[in-house]
Amino acid sequence: MKRIETFLNSGLYIAIIFLITFVSWTMYEDTPPYAFNLYLMMGMFFLITINTIILISYRNTLYILPTVISLVFVINKSDMTFDTIASLGFPILALSIFFVGPMVHIIRFKPVFRRGVFFFGFLLIAISYLIPLVYIPFDIRSIPVSLVATFYLGFYVFMTSTLQANLNYLFKNMMFANLLLTFQVFFYLYQGYLLNPDLDIYHRIFIGWGRNLGWANINDMCFYIALTFPSYLYFIFKKPNTYLLWLLMILPTAAVILSKSRGGIIGYAVVIVGVVLFFLWKGNKKHLTHGLVALLVAGILSYIGREIFYLWYDELILSFGNNINDFSSNRLYIYENAWNVFKQYPLFGGGWISIFSFPFSGRIFMYHSTIFQALAAMGLFGLFALIVHYTQILKYMLKHATLEKYLFLIGYLATQVHGLIDNVQYAVPYSGWIALILVMFETSSQQTLFEEVNERYHLISTT
Predict the structure, then answer these.
(1) Helices and strands in the chain: count of H runs, count of E runs
(2) Are residues 94 and 139 in the same domain?
(3) Phi/psi zone of residue 111: left (φ > 0), alpha (ψ -120 to 50 degrees), beta?
(4) Is 367 helix (H, G, I), strand (E, B) or coil?
(5) Residues 323, 291 within the same domain
(6) pLDDT digit string (tens) for 10-68?
(7) How many Å apart are CA 140 and CA 93, to the nearest integer?
(8) How far apart are CA 428 and CA 189, in angstroms?
(9) Cα separation of 27 and 9, whole Å?
(10) DSSP at 355
């Protein structure tokens, strides 16, 4: 068991899990007569099986991080709706099997449940999701989505009570997840390249094959890349002699640019500014040297592919349309509707399916703004719950700040800026990620002080 545990603690195990996730996700074509893709179901059940075996076998739930993260990003069904999620069949079966692991773990290891530092914020958010069910007209679709925040709360309590965290392991997962998401974008672009042989090479690279990648829109992909991007800095500060990590950072940057996501560019620009400022503040001469080399390589690649930037600019100009609502992809119309719902239900909101009272598409949909989503769906109470949640996070991260805390904040704040114009804070994968990351910080026995980073650099410089 010790040998297996050593493997589970390794980067190789994490890489294998994310590789399986990527391969399963790429097989996105329909496989009749199944409603869900056969390879998606196989990948999902494989990840759930690994997750269950680990929960049954080990008291420390640390090693489920790669599988829990991958369970979201393996989904490749692009036409999911509320009806799809709520229907009997694969989703219900997969979820039922998923809960076997935690239940057996609780029975076998009998963990002592505790509230944790961030419990109150998650509790208020869970309550804010549920309250509108009391007075809105009954709709079966409102039940599963309104229970999601209760799941976040339960997941947070379970992990807080069973996890012995290792932040090095967390940042390994974040870096491999960043690479997974980056290569999903590249695969998306490659499919567009194959599907459009009549276009020139630049248009073929740029076009993609559609905006929906199965588990999310291409905009969502960009803010997850931004959230995980600072993980490269963690290993650069830990191993300042390496050039590889600097060059790897070029890949997600290229992916975001090629995605054509305007919101993604905004969030990613914030994370890049945060990274640069962090290096200027806490970096050393070696970081500066390596950074300049990476910047030179990025500049050369950008010059070679400069036609991409011309196309990006042309598309940006075309996106302005006839008015600002067209430029915002109908966001002003969405915000107006959200405000009308808020005025009708100011205290506790109109609930999570209030969006369906307006003529939008049938896919899973929100109000494209953290603030408007909170006000429309959960009212002033929901906004208060969100402020409490934010306050708890900032207070914890800024108290006795460490390398890991600062790096998390860079990605977190960048995604929250993106969330002003997109579905970030309340997106299912994002909320689960944040709960998992906060538990990792809270239960970790050791974090990296900047004095340790400087001492390590001094030792390397003198050897």
Answers:
(1) 24, 0
(2) no
(3) beta
(4) coil
(5) yes
(6) 999 999 999 999 999 998 777 776 667 788 888 889 999 999 999 999 999 999 999 99
(7) 19
(8) 25
(9) 29
(10) G
